[in-house]
Write a structure and sequence with these properties.
The protein is α/β, with parallel strands linked by helices and 193 residues long. Helices cover 42% and strands 16% of the residues. It has five helices and seven strands. It has a five-stranded mixed sheet with strand order 5-4-3-6-7, with helices on one face. Helix 3 (123-133) links the parallel strand 4 (113-118) and strand 5. It is elongated, with a radius of gyration of 23 Å.
């Protein structure tokens, strides 16, 4: 009798195993289709413990070595865009950022300040990126990873909006569109968002 129990149990396992494997495969396929269907360019807003709180006092430096201190930007709307030179979504997003910066410059003193925060790219790589694709705005090198660590940036592109009082208002963990970003920024200025 003791020999019959293991054979019966093994037989049951052989009959259940294909169902488990099939169920797992079905879940993986479903997740795959969800990822394909997701529009990564929609500029998905994401939660962060920083939202509604003062922005970290992160520092970096411009290409010429001049220090950049985020806390000194109070009084202006500030948009930070984290990127690397070889990130495919960053490359795809870049024309939208050019358009956004132009929209903000057209607003004069009411326009937001825009900064690219560079991680994992050299100055030569960034210079080549901008020469090939255009764009003319301040670039900050996160030499000591203060921005990445204090903002909790794991992947790029990532975009943050900081209000004139220095409080974090929005975080986007994917590509952004110029029009969506400008519309949201205007709504935040008017207190409607």
């Amino acid at each position: 009798m003791t020999d019959a129990a293991p054979i019966e149990n093994g037989s049951t396992r052989r009959r259940v195993a294909p169902w488990i494997v099939g169920g797992v495969a079905l879940v993986v396929v479903a997740l795959f289709f969800i990822l394909i269907a997701a529009d990564s360019s929609s500029g998905e807003s994401a939660q962060s413990p920083l939202l509604g709180n003062p922005a970290p006092a992160a520092t970096g430096e411009y290409a010429d070595g001049t220090p950049f201190d985020l806390s000194r930007r109070k009084g202006s709307w500030v948009v930070l865009n984290f990127f690397t030179h070889n990130c495919v979504p960053c490359i795809k997003e870049h024309p939208e950022l050019i358009e956004f910066v132009e929209q903000q410059e057209a607003l004069g003193a009411d326009g937001a300040e825009f900064y690219s925060i560079v991680r994992d790219s050299t100055q030569d790589e960034v210079d080549e990126f901008f020469e090939m694709r255009g764009g003319d705005w301040p670039i900050v090198y996160d030499t000591d990873f203060e921005f990445v660590n204090q903002f909790g940036v794991a992947l790029v592109p990532e975009t943050w909006i900081i209000d004139p009082n220095g409080f974090v208002r929005r975080r986007f963990i994917s590509e952004v569109k110029a029009e969506d970003l400008s519309t949201l920024l205007q709504a935040l200025r008017e207190g409607a968002a």
